[in-house]
Amino acid sequence: MALNQARRIGREAILLLLSDQPDKELTRLNEDNWQACLGKVGSMEAHKVVAAIETAAKKNGLIKTDVYRESHALYHAIMEALQGVTRGQVQLGSVHRTVGLTFAILRGNPYENNEEGEWMAVSLYGTIGAPVKGSEHEAIGLGINHI
């Protein structure tokens, strides 16, 4: 049941997110049997962030739309990552905060034993702050969940 140190899903999701050469990273991850995609979202509403990430996952074939457990796993990974960005309080517009985020979604098996199944990681990086230009700061979040 040991994690494969060469396949740490959270580390890979963050490296993809922060890469200066995302196309090369996506190619490398694909060659290593990971499924991945990148996207951007900005909003004062958390549900719009969730919707943008779910839409990207569906459009890029990372989750099957007719299999509930896949959407459910993605949702929990998103919410965990959002908690990191929002410092535990997943509230945006209602407390006058807005985010501008880049996200990465990664799917695969991080374990040595293939029977452990697939996992999903969502990493978020960008800014959060008052909805006034220049009143924001950087933030990062990571969420990992089994499918």
TrEMBL record:
Which key words tag this protein in UniProt? Activator, Histidine metabolism, RNA-binding, Transcription, Transcription regulation
Q: Name one Pfam family in it.
A: HutP
GO biological process per UniProt = L-histidine metabolic process; positive regulation of gene expression
Gene Ontology MF term list: mRNA binding
Q: Which NCBIfam families match?
A: PRK03065.1
Instruction: Describe the protein's quaternary organization and the partners it interacts with.
Output: Homohexamer.
User: Per its database record, what is this protein's job?
Assistant: Antiterminator that binds to cis-acting regulatory sequences on the mRNA in the presence of histidine, thereby suppressing transcription termination and activating the hut operon for histidine utilization.
Q: Which family does it belong to?
A: Belongs to the HutP family.
Q: What is this protein called?
A: Hut operon positive regulatory protein
Q: Supply the source organism for this entry.
A: Alkalihalobacillus alcalophilus ATCC 27647 = CGMCC 1.3604
Lineage here is: Bacteria, Bacillati, Bacillota, Bacilli, Bacillales
